[in-house]
Amino acid sequence: MGKINTIQGAIATEQLGITAMHEHIGFGLPGCDLDTKWWEARPKMLEVTIDKLRRFRELGGQTIVDCTGIGTGRNIPYWQVVSQTTGVNIVACTGFVSGDTVLPYFRDKSVEYLADLFYHEITVGIAGTNVKAGAVKVGVSRGGLSELDERVYRAAARAARATGVPILTHLSINGDRQMDLFETEGLPLDRVVIGHSDGAEGLDPERDFRIAKRGAFVGYDTIGFDTEKGTPEVPAPFWARPRKERLDQVMDLFNAGYTNRAIISCDANCWALGWASTEHSVAELLEVFVPDLKARGVSDETIEQLLIHTPAHLLTMKEPKPDRMRKAAAVSTGV
Question: Which residues bind Zn(2+) 2 (predicted)?
Answer without folding.
Answer: 137, 170, 196
